[in-house]
Structures are given as C-alpha cells and as structure tokens.
Design goal:
The complex is a heterodimer. By secondary structure, chain A is an alpha/beta fold. Chain A is built from twelve helices and nine strands. The longest helix of chain A is centred in the last third of the chain and has 21 residues. Chain A is globular. The chains are: A alpha/beta, B alpha/beta. The interface between A and B is medium-sized, with 31 and 26 residues.
Chain lengths: 318, 425
C-alpha cells in the first residue's frame, strides 16, 4: 500500500517525487549532486538558460510564506525554460474554504507538470503526492518540522565542494534541531553519504527526545561539540522560540550556542561554516564568523539554484 | 418468536461454558441451554454448525456522533455498524455537540436509540457543563435520565481542584467516573507519541508522562475520595503498571484498551497515514506489547472499539490537521480474535474482554448467557477470513488503519432481546 511503500520512487527505483532525503539511496543523492555540478556552469554563463523544461508548467504552491526558497525555485525553473506560476495561498483563508486537496485538484486541471510545495504541516507534500495524477511530480520545499530536501542537498553540495570526501568528516549541527526541517534533512543526507561522526549541539529544549536514534551524538556543551569538527552547520532560531518556554532569551542562547570566532577556533582550522539563512546575527551566529573566511553561506545560495535545477530536470526526465 | 439455535459451539466466559450446546429463546429470553424446555416449538431455527455462539458484545466506547455531528455519522448508520459487529450493548462518550450534559439530551438519545430497536445504548454523561472543565453537571439528574457514568471524553481538564470536587461529588452518590488520563499541558499541540517516529517525521509530540502524570493524579484523588474510577484508552506500559499496583492495593479502579492500540504502534504511521492519527497517540512497540500482556492477565479489564467515524474531508488533511480517531465497531470482534490467536489465549478468556468484563465495568446485566437472561447474542464464524474494505463497512466512517488487512472472524447473526437484528447476507 502507498502509505507504507516509499512514495518517492517509481517502479524502476528512480526519483518520482522529492519529498524527503530519508529513504533515498546514496546513488540518487550523488546523481542529484553530480547533475547540479553540471548546472553550476550554466548559472555562470552570460545566457543562463537551458531548454530542458521548455513547455513545462511548474506551480510554486506556497501554503506558508517564503521569499528566498520560492525565488530560488523560480529562478531555477526559469533557467530550465519552464513556465513558472507562483501561488501564495493564505493559510487562514484556506482553513475557511478550499482544502489542500481541492486546491491541488484545481491546479492539476490546469495541466501542471510539477508542484513545488511548502506547508506548515509536516507531511503535507505526502498527502499531495498521494492524490496527484501519476505524471505529476511533487517537490517538497519545506514541510513543518519534517523535511526540506533541496536545502539538505544544497548543503551536501557545498560540503562536497569544499571537503570532497564525506567519509572522512566530522560534522556538527548546532541550534534548534527540534523545530528544524533543515536539520532533519541534513542528518539523513550526511548519514546516507557516509559521514562517520555527526553531532548535534543544543539545549535539551531544542533537541527532539529521540534524536540519537537518527544516528547522531548529542552535545549540550558547544565547546565540546565543536572540538575538531570539519563542518559546522548552524540552524536558524525562529523569533518565536527566542523567549518563552524554549529559551529564556536570545542573549542567553547566544552566550551558550551562538557561533563566535572564539568557539569556531575549537574546530579544525580549515572548518567551514554553513547557515541555511536567513541569519539572525548576534543570536545564532556572530557577524565576524558569518562574514569571515570560513563562512560558505553565500556560495550555499548560489549552489541552491543549481541543486533545484538538478532536481527539477531529473524529475521531469524520469 | 421462539428461536432454536442448534449445533453451535457455545462460549460463555461468565460461566466458563465452552461446549457444543443448543440455545432456546422465547419471549426475548433464554429459556433453555443444552436441553430443550418442555413443550418448546421453534418458529425459527438457526443452524450454527461450525459457528461460535457467544454473548452479544459490550463496547465501552462507541461514538454515534449524535447530536451535532450528523455529517460524520448518524445514529442509524452507527447502530447498523454495531449490530453488524455483533455489539448488543454500547456506551457512548459525551463528546457530542452539544455534549451530553443535560438530561433532555440524554433522554432524546436513549429514545432515538430505543426506537431503532437495535443495540442497547448506555450514554456516559459529561462530567462538567459543556465539557469545559469549570462547572459540574447535574449528575443525579443525568443518572435518572439514563447515564451510567461520567466522563470528560477527550476534552482537557486542567483544573485539578475542580477534578477533586467532581470526584468527591461523584463518590457521594457512587457514580463511576471514566477518565482518559492525559495532562493537558504536556499534550498541548502534540499529535504523535514522543518517540523515534515523531522525531523522524517532525511531528509535535505527546510524551508518555502526559499519561502517567494524569494517572498518578487521578489515582491519588481516587484514594482520597473513594470514587470508582475507570481509565479509558490506556496507551503506555508505564500507565498499565500504575493501574496494576493500584488494583493490588485494593483501589476500585478498572481500565480499557482500544483495539488499535492492541495491534498498532507509532511505526504504523508510516508516511503520515492520517488514519493512524488517534487519541491517545499510538506509542512504541514495547508499549503495545505491555498493553497486550495486561489485557491478557486482566489488568486491563476490557477491549473497546473506540469507534470514531470521521468524514473524509476531516481526515484527508496533513497528519497534524486531520481529525483523530478511526472507525472500528465492525472490527472489534476480529481484532480481539487476532490478539487472542497471537497471544495463544483460549476463546473463553479473550471473549470475556468484550462481553462479561465490559458489562461488569458498565454495571449492567449483559455479556453472559444464562437462563432467564435477555437473549443478546452474537453468532460468528471464527474461521472465515475477510478483507477490510472501507466501502463495505456499515459505518458511515470509512477511516481505518486496517484497510486491506485480512482478518478472521465474521459475524453471521446478532440477536437483541431475542430478535434477529442482523443477519449476514
């Protein structure tokens, strides 16, 4: 039955939807990274377009506000020569009227080829993927706390670009893992690609209760957790978590879990620093580090377009 | 109408009967077991060869959705489901709209149910007005109207002082109080068990301590007040251990388990199956195993369907937004048999959990086969496998995590007060 079989792969084991990194074999992750590599050149040319998706209709279906992710998907689709339709669906008006599935059914009737979906509820893209016609592809652009696979993939692309071999790395993910779909995607991608030592660092209130079952080592002390790591992946702390029941204040969080030059010095000298953006300077990361020479935060954004081009072109080709 | 049920294998957990015996029914009552009463001549003979004849099932939690949720299910559709599942007595929780918090509503429900002439309906009254957790209901009036116990259904009860007073008041008149133990604060926002699946899927979680803290609070208050407590729908092994100890200490406490929690665990959520969004959440496999063992050893008194028909519009939503619950009245028997087979239990013991034991919890005369008793019976084929197809269910709710499963045990015939109310085609 669909609910128990991997809904992302078709009968031939090829990618049909991209819903989560979890459950994807390493070969598919590598295929996406390799394809993205070939697109990096395109994005640097004067004419930044290839005709791979000409005539295809791609719907950006955002049930939760987003500027950055939606824009990068739009740029990626346009560089592949697809027609892009952006839909920002106000969640509050939606709760009174049309259901997710009605929205999707209506758009399918407009001959959509691909849906890029963001939703505040974990699993919403699975619901959509279960109900669309067999020739429509769904890409998860972030669902609740669950998954943000293209972000995870662009992070892998960035790590591979600078560090080459995953099997030799010690990686630390720092901050609000509990609420982070990015962290879950990174963890699955890194373990699938063979990273031997993966750490998560944060206070108990911001770590899921069974996070060690995902194959990570848990640290509450950042000075211990950063020791000798090759890659530091910072997470964004949402404003609403900064004070209240998860944390007393942004200042106290920064004191213990903010990345400063001093703390970064505990990592390997050539360690790189990633952040999915948008950054809260002075909350999870100090400006010195964010703008410093170990930061690869801006290259991440550039690679993000190539990754999304790769995902869309692979899906359309399968 | 005189009915002769012949050649059936009679199982009556209350008396321990487990033998091939005929039953004779006249004027709604059982007039003969084994031996035909003198001068008996049947209008109707049912051949129960290779079938099991047992007391009609007693279900401690079946939502009929009336009043207020007729778009999800109606009394007609759900009573059909009950008798198709062999259920002849059922308790319905007060979580209707409005909740069962005044006698008129209860009388109307009983009246409507009686007119359908199918299963017996035993309403459980609301413990507080509107299930809002602020004012006590008129429990004595509600009892006169037909309520057999008082409950807060799944509505949060945050005020422990009010809970104490509700239990004191109920204890004064010896009204039983049925509570599903859950600390409202710890469960706030949660949709799945706080375990590895919720961690992986990024689902807001409900920890086990949300249940154990509530069990602990309620047990302490029960000791204080002497009230009769029934815990509804336990979900964790730890909570079961607490109830086991309380029973050993002589506290008047009983508890039940929903069929889903006897068979499923958090793993069954799979890729966000909204049919597995249940209240309480499906917990770990270890919890499930502890619940099954406790049901076998009698710590858990009864298995119930926790039947909750939900319409597709409310279920086909992202996991966390989908309405909780599953349809199960027609699955109570086969899922109990499945548990019994897998646990290596004799049928007399297994069927007790859905007949005589829940009848004892309810405090009603039902769930047994004895001379002079009302002829509420279930006749089923234990060897007949059937595939769960939602559209074939009588219930208006088609939502079940067991879709596609093949289960043994199909009800052939249900009798209520000596009337054949259901016969399989």
């Amino acid at each position: 039955m669909f609910l128990n079989s991997n809904p992302q792969l078709n009968k031939n084991g090829e990618l049909h939807h991209l819903l989560s990194i979890e459950g994807l074999p390493a070969e598919i992750l590598r295929q996406i990274l390799d394809t993205a590599q070939s697109f990096v050149g395109v994005t640097q040319r004067e004419v930044k377009k290839v005709p791979l998706l000409r005539g295809k209709a791609i719907f950006n279906l955002f049930f939760e506000p987003s500027t950055r992710t939606r824009t990068t998907f739009e740029i990626a689709a346009k560089r592949l020569s697809a027609d892009v339709i952006n839909l920002a669906i106000n969640v509050s008006s939606q709760s009174k009227g049309e259901s997710v599935l009605d929205t999707v059914a209506n758009l399918s009737a407009m001959q959509a080829d691909m849906f890029i979906v963001r939703h505040s509820q974990s699993g919403a893209p699975y619901l959509i993927a279960r109900h669309v016609d067999a020739d429509i592809h769904v890409v998860n652009a972030g669902d609740g706390r669950h998954s943000h696979p293209t972000q995870g993939l662009l992070d892998m692309f960035t790590v591979r670009h600078y560090k080459h071999d995953f099997t030799q790395l010690r990686v630390a993910i720092v901050g609000d893992v509990l609420h982070s779909r990015v962290a879950r995607s990174q963890i699955h991608a890194l373990t699938t690609l063979g990273v031997p030592e993966l750490r998560v660092i944060g206070p108990q209130t911001l770590l899921p209760s069974h996070v060690e079952k995902l194959g990570v080592h848990v640290y509450h002390d950042m000075t211990k957790g950063l020791k000798d790591v090759d890659v530091v992946m910072m997470l964004r702390l949402q404003n609403e978590r900064m004070q209240g029941s998860f944390l007393p204040s942004a200042q106290e969080f920064f004191k213990f879990y903010g990345l400063t030059a001093e703390k970064l010095a505990l990592a390997k000298p050539d360690a790189i620093v990633l952040h999915p953006g948008p950054m809260n300077r002075g909350v999870e990361i100090d400006s010195d580090v964010a703008d410093g020479n170990q930061s690869v935060i801006l290259p991440q954004v550039t690679f993000g377009i190539a990754i999304r081009m790769a995902v869309m072109s692979i899906l359309a080709g399968n | 109408m005189k009915i002769h049920i012949k050649n059936g294998h009679l199982i009556d957990p209350a008396s321990g009967t487990d033998a091939r015996q005929d039953i004779y029914i006249a004027a709604g009552k059982i007039v003969g077991i084994g031996a035909m009463p003198a001068g008996f001549s049947a209008n109707r003979t049912i051949d129960a060869n290779s079938l099991i004849v047992c007391p009609g099932l007693v279900d401690l939690a079946m939502r009929l959705r009336e009043p207020g949720f007729e778009y999800m299910a109606t009394l007609e559709s759900e009573m059909e489901a009950a008798i198709a599942g062999g259920i002849t007595s059922l308790a319905c929780p007060p979580d209707t709209d409005p909740p069962l918090d005044e006698p008129g509503l209860v009388e109307m429900l009983k009246f409507r149910a009686r007119n359908l002439n199918q299963a017996h309906v035993y309403p459980v009254g609301a413990l507080t007005v509107g299930l809002k957790g602020t004012h006590l209901t008129e429990m004595a009036e509600l009892t006169d109207a037909g309520c057999v116990a008082f409950s807060h259904a799944d509505a949060p009860l945050t005020d422990t002082q009010l809970l104490l007073r509700a239990l004191q008041y109920a204890a004064t008149f010896d009204f039983p109080v049925w509570l599903r133990p859950q600390d409202a604060g710890l469960a706030r926002g949660g949709v799945a068990h706080d375990g590895q699946v919720a961690t992986r899927l990024g689902l807001p979680a409900i920890p086990v301590c949300a249940e154990t803290i509530a069990v602990s609070t309620i047990l302490l208050l029960a000791r204080e007040t002497g009230v009769r407590i029934h815990f509804c729908r336990l979900s964790s092994g730890e909570a079961v251990d607490m109830v086991r100890k309380a029973k050993q200490q002589g506290l008047r406490v009983t508890c039940d388990l929903a069929v889903h929690h006897a068979h499923l665990s958090e793993m069954d959520i799979g890729y966000f199956d909204p049919n597995c969004n249940l209240t309480p959440p499906l917990r770990s496999q270890r919890d499930r195993d502890a619940l099954r063992a406790a049901l076998a050893d009698g710590t858990i008194d009864a298995m119930c369907s926790d039947h909750t028909p939900v319409d597709d519009d409310a279920k086909q939503l992202p996991f966390g937004e989908a309405e909780t619950g599953a349809t199960a009245a027609e699955l109570l028997l086969p899922l109990t048999l499945k548990w019994a087979t897998e646990s290596g239990l004799p049928l007399t013991q297994a069927l007790a959990r859905i007949t005589s034991d829940p009848a004892r919890v309810l405090g009603i005369k039902a769930g047994s086969i004895e001379l002079g008793a009302s002829a509420d019976l279930c006749i089923f084929d234990p060897a007949r496998y059937w595939k769960i197809a939602p559209q074939a269910l009588k219930s208006q709710g088609k939502n079940t995590p067991f879709t596609g499963h093949e289960l043994a045990g199909k009800v052939c015939c249900t009798l209520v007060e000596g009337q054949i109310v259901y016969e399989a085609a």
